[in-house]
């Protein structure tokens, strides 16, 4: 690590050490008062034949699982009710699903830690929800665990967890997957036994479209790569065998997992899996630099088990951040100060099931759906647009080993 990075990290640790206990206690006290019980006002699962919502009132929900299946549900956006359709694709360990921004096409990873992973494109039948395979391309890495779609460049960006690499794949005009364009292998490790090597966990393009940020679980880094939208190409500025000079160095053993940009594009909200924290970072696009601003715990102070945070998302209006506490089966709601980018606690609510692995906010911004992996359920929460507060509607669909969710209108 260069001396400038050490100075930043030292200041960061000092600030975190002074405030950690106070923030944790404040967060717990505030959120404990905001617990929201489930209400049975909205019906649960409708019969498979009861697709009563009109097209304007419904969205297809595609759920990735760890059992080599993609399941389809239908969400009535006027009530939050779910219709269970069932498995619509098989043969892939689809631990992440993404959607084309304009076409009815779903993309799935094949998260295989042993063999090379892949990205598969499926056409959606809007009448029935059925998926038809279009084509498939190799991801150039093992354990492909995450996909993001950069719409301006028509590029899919894949994080290969097991091999510790990221790849870019061009998307054709018809939505089919084109050739893999670039792959970058990452290096690094951390003190946790799960951090023996680099493990890229997700990829996000910054608002300028010039950079791709990669939280690496194993290396305790957020790597920053140049991204050329014209050629779909990722490029590292690190010399062979050397660390990325622009990478944000997270505290050892935190395990960076996912991140989102705030609405202004000036702040990044980084979720760490192992320490279960949200680190607020200021983004300097002119110099491709991340600077720590604030750290908030996701776990409650009394929790003494193995921490695990899983997912983070920004509300459609950019005013709230939602975080998944996998270890304690909870969703945490945080409000955003638009001037400083800092976060304040709003609510802590049960996930509706066991081992929440992923969640997603629907395109209307009214509903948050949680994939509870261990209980095999997808649970529906209503979002209050004024306060950001979640209400468990009681609507639930049974989907074995549900881990990821995306929507098609």
TrEMBL record:
The lineage of its organism: Bacteria, Pseudomonadati, Pseudomonadota, Betaproteobacteria, Burkholderiales. Pfam families: Lactonase. The keyword Membrane applies. The chain crosses the membrane at residues 12-29. The keyword Lipid biosynthesis does not apply. This is Lactonase family protein. GO terms for biological process: glucose metabolic process. InterPro entries: Cycloisomerase_2, Haem_d1_sf, Lactonase_7-beta_prop, WD40/YVTN_repeat-like_dom_sf. It comes from the Bacteria. Keywords: Carbohydrate metabolism, Glucose metabolism, Membrane, Transmembrane, Transmembrane helix. Belongs to the cycloisomerase 2 family. It comes from Pararobbsia silviterrae. One of its GO terms (molecular function) is 6-phosphogluconolactonase activity. GO terms for cellular component: cytosol. SUPFAM superfamilies: C-terminal (heme d1) domain of cytochrome cd1-nitrite reductase (SSF51004).
